[in-house]
Structures are given as C-alpha cells and as structure tokens.
Amino acid sequence: MIRRGVFRCALVCSVSLASLAGAQSSLLPNEDGYDLWLRYHRVADAARLREYRAAIQYVFVDGRSPTLHAARDELTRGLSGLLGRAVPSETHAVDATIVAGTPESSRAIAALGLAKPLASLGNDGFLIRSTNIGRRHAIVIAANSDVGVLYGAFRLLREIQTDGTLRDLSIADAPKVELRLLDHWDNLDRSVERGYAGQSLWEWNQLPDSIDPRYRDYARANSSIGINGAVLTNVNADARVLTAAYIAKVAALANVFRPYGVRVYLTARFSAPIELGGLKTADPLDAGVRAWWKAKADEIYRAIPDFGGFLVKANSEGQPGPQDYHRSHADGANMLADAVAPHHGIVMWRAFVYSNAVPTDRIKQAYDEFKPLDGQFRDNVLVQVKNGPLDFQPREPFSPLFGAMPKTPLMMEFQITKEYLGEDTHLVYLGALESEVLRADTWANGRGSTVARVIDGELDHYTHTGMAGVSNVGTDRNWTGSHFNQANWYAFGRLAWNPAQSAAAIADDWIRMTWSNDPSVVAPVEHMMLMSREAVVDYMTPLGLAHIMGTNHHYGPMPWYARGRPDWTPVYFHRADSIGIGFDRAPAGSNAVAQYFPPLRDEFANVDSTPEKYLLWFHHVPWTYRMRSGRTLWDELVHHYYAGVDSVRLMQGLWESVRGRVDSARFADVEGFLNIQEHEAAWWRDAAVLYFQTFSRMPLPAGLAPPAHSLAFYESLRCPADPRKPRCPAIY
Ligand code: GCW
Hints:
Bound molecules: 4-O-methyl-beta-D-glucopyranuronic acid
Radius of gyration: 26 Å
Oligomer: single chain
CATH class of the largest domain: Alpha Beta
Largest sheet: 8 strands, parallel, barrel
Mean pLDDT: 93
CATH architecture of the largest domain: Alpha-Beta Barrel
C-alpha cells in the first residue's frame, strides 16, 4: 500500500509526528494485509489449542471434483496453520477426524443418514456435526453439493479462527439469497470507476495465457464468505468485452473461479449490435438485433457453460438503452433474457436510471419508471435497485421500490467501494449501513415487511433472489486500499448470505480473523467499527443532508458548488436559504413521500413525525425549528458536525489502545489513515458549518471552538492531489 495520504491537501499536511514517534514496537510479525481474514495464524489461546489438537489429526475430503479438492486444500492449509503443526489429508474415512463430502461423493457421508437434515439446506447449505465414524470421534461436513462442502469447510475454519469450541458441533446453515455477487466497475484499460485500491485485478493484456495467482486467492476469499458470482466489467460498459478475443479471456478467469463456486457475469452494452455487429439499430424489438444477441449468448455459453448472465445499465448517465428506440426497460431486459434463457442465464437490469432532462426531484425517477413495469419482465430478469433512492450516500432512507414491485424480483445493490464515504482512507464499517437498510420496514404487506424479506424473496415469493455489492477490490497489496475496507468486503458477503445477521456479530468475527482474538483488541476495535458509520454521517451529512461533496470526484466538502447540471450539484440537494435548509419532499413539495407505503408516507410527510436522521431529506426546515433535544435546528446541525469529529478522535483513542497488541506495520497503516480522517472530518465540519452559517446567520452554539479558517479558505482548497482518484482535477 502506498502511504500517500499526507500529501493530500493543504489541510491534512500536519499529521502529528509526535503520535508516530511514540510507537512502541510490537513483537508480532508484520503483515501486509494480503491474507485478508484467511490468515490461519496459530491459535493463541493455549486451552483452545489443546482442544483443537486433540480433536483434529487428519482430514478426509471424500470425492474428486475440483471443488472438493479446493475444500481439502483449504482445510489442510488452514488447520495446519491454526494448529501449528501439519494436518495432513487422509485417503480413507477410518483414520480421519474430519470427514467431508456429499452423500453422492462419499459412502461414509451417505452412511450417516443425513438425508433429512440436508433436505432443507438447498444446493449451497451444509451441516457440521460432531459424530462417530467407526469407533473414532469425528467432525463431519456434509452438503448436497460440492460447493456446499467448500462453504462448510470455510465455516469450520471460522469456528476455530474465532476461538469457538469444537465440542458437540451441530451447525446447519444455508444462504437466504440465491445470487451473492460482486459488481466490479472495472474498465478494459484496467482503470476502475470509483476504485480506490489500485488497478483492476483483471490483466486483460496477459489473459488468457497468463494466469495471475491472485485470481485464485480472490476466488478463495469470495467463497469463504459465500459470494458466488462476479460481474467482471463496469456498468458503464464497453462492447469489446463481448468480442471473441475477450470471451476467451473471460473464460480463463471463469476456469479459475469455478472450483470456488464463483460464476462470471458481464455487463452488456446495449448498443453492442451496432458497435460490434454492424447493425443499423439496437432496437430490442428488431428481429436482427434479437438474433444478434441470441448468437452472442450462444457463443459465450460455448466458451463458458456456466456463464451467469448480463448486468445492464441502460438509459442512465448517457448509456444507450431501449428508450433510444421508444421501447421500455422491460422490452430491453426481456430481449436479453430471451437470449440467455436457453442456457439458464439471468439478466440484472439496473433501476439506477435518470434522464438527461433535469427533473423536479431526481430521487423519484427510478420508482416512477419501474413501478409501472411490474409484472412485465421475464422470469429470468431481476431488477437491481440501489439501497437508497439517490446514490450511495452516507445515509439515505431505503429505496421505495423495495416492496413496491411484488411481481418482479428486486435485487439489492450496495456499494462496497466507499465513493461518498471517504473512499479508501476513512474508516467506515458498512455493515452498520447495510443492516440498517435491510432491517428497515417497508410496510408493503403490513408491519414487518422488511427490506431483507423483500430481497430474500420471503415477502413476494420471487423466482430469483440476489444481492450485489460494488466491489472495492484492486491490485493494492491489501486488496481494498486500507485494512479496514476489507471488513466491508467481508460484511457484504456475510449479509448477502443472511441479511438478518447482526452487523456487530459480523464485525466480531472479522476482527478475530483479521486482527486478534485478544479481548482487549476485539472490544475496542468493534466499538470503533460500530461507531464509524454514524461518525461519517455526522461530519459529512447529518440530519438527512445528502450529496454536498465535491462534484465529480466526490471527495471532500463542497456544499457551495452550483455550476453545471443542477441535479448534480450540492445546492440542488441541500436547498439552504435564509429561512432554512433541506429538500421539501412532502405533498406540497416534490411529494416523493407518496412513493412509500402508509403509514411511512404519512410519517415522512409530516415534519414533526419524520425521524430526525431523515429530516432534511424530506423537509425544508426553518433554522429556528425546535428539535427533540430542545435545540434549534441550526444548533443541532452544528452539534452533529462537531460530534462527528469528536467521534473520529474517540476512534483514534480506541485504536491507540491496541498498540502493541497487533502487528506494528498494520497498526501504523491504520493509525496514519485515522490521522487523515481526523483532519478531513474537521475539514468537512468547518467547511459545512461556515457555509451554512451564511444562510442561518446564527452564531455557533456556546462552547464550541470556531473553525480554524475562513470560509474563503475552505472554498479555495483543491481536490486531493492523488493521481489514483479518477478525474479529480477536472472540475477546477
Ligand atoms: O454514483 C454514480 C457514480 C458513477 C456510477 C453511477 C452508477 C458507474 O458516480 O460513477 O457509474 O453512479 O451507479 O451507474
């Protein structure tokens, strides 16, 4: 990882040397983060280690497929590391203390009579049980499919990595969501749209001949958290990936991923029949266009028999689409769906659409366009909806489409790469954001109709279910640009497997696997992670504010920016004036509240019943409005901004408390980034407070130290001079 943050901008150049100087060296070997949560260091707790060593001598993965071999390799590698001695693989069940397989692959498993408990676990689920095989005590991993065995192997390893007991194991687990995907916004030139961890992993120029070993580790990491698909290319799509030469490259990646249960998907550029096929049109109802896509799908499936399907961004931000031919999104999606249907492929059609005409309220568009199409899509189409109605902000209410399209499988799109949340540098644990959304009640079928139950298909009995996360992975040695961004990859996978899991429990596992089982590490780090999301909301966009960051690069505060297309500017979204601040979406305003089911719509329509965390999202509120705390809106807003910075300082203190208890290389990386975050949180706070004060004309609440500089100073700050932040300087 390149430690470049201190060069970022005038404001952040004063990283405290004193804090670096005091570093006491840790005796733990330094790590670079490459191993992610699959480090497999020897168990530190002596009693646990004794227990594990007594229980485990040999591993026997019964069967011959590449996936079962992957399970065997992972178990021997993981257990040997964790137990601190070789745990070899056996060739028969009698001597083994871990036996893994399916009833088809393994006579030993079949003989255990597990048909009944396996019946409800589907293709991907697994059982882990303590049992007897012959006269030997053994741990059994059983599943209906080879990939289920692999998931079970990772799960058993996790039990040991997190200091769990192996006594009387009885675990039955299965994913609640069928398609658990990473969406890579990777371009063919290896740049990554909104990527902050180096270049794209896919070495297109070397493929298919040269296979980077990282591909396998990427697949292992995904498989370990249940991710079963990867969309390899950017939704702002390049048709060339559909040419024969690229299909061969994609097939080579698919071959590496396949043993790990990870399928490949591609983005389909809607105009490809024109660009590649030489046709005059890409009209989805044109027979020639339909034939072109069918032939293209056949060609892809000849090379990649388990190709997953297509993801499409159409008629949004300049991308071509069916509306160019006065056809609907359903017409476009169905044409592609028909092309992949004979091969059991699927189409994921994004609902992130907004037209080139500036709307009265941009956040209403996805619902307005897609809700009327409910019921018009083929069975193998899923509509992919961003978690909120705008665009991956630190906080948004959930998208009102969830629950509103009972006849169309809706899949979730989260953004793991933190485009609007401090990108690579700021420590923000997204598990908290994602589970807030998943637990939100849509009220679509009365109380308890949570977003999670929409996504997992329980509410509307969808034919397919899915969750996608826009990936934060790149060529950086630590994969994600910072050690703590790994937690967001991890948490996404775990929530896609089971959207009801608690963000805290997932963080707990990740910390133990990635850092340490030492309670004096786990507790403060978990505290830090769980407070981090509210911290970023507070110092960037409290009380329902949104989209006040630098236009284009989306880094740093720029609430004053008003040039260019209005609905891309901060002033369009915050609407501050001498009376108050916020976007009026009540019935007398844009009436976006009407897109929610009652009673939510009424709750949001009324300023007094709107939860304060969404207040300025739904209402233009006077500066003097009395908040529940008794403060005026102005005072409350300022307090949130100051609290955000204070939270980051608390996070720094929590991290300081683990000095010497984790390796000093990773400790220092995190410490440095927290220093940047603290400076930039103050930058956000001071810029926003001074700017909004020009409207409120009210003083800072008593007791708060005034910003260090004038508003003019913050307005003059330039985008971080970081060459890896795409298009950064372009707007100046
Ligand atoms: O948030 C916006 C991003 C674009 C992105 C777009 C989308 C891929 O700023 O970079 O394009 O969303 O989700 O399509």
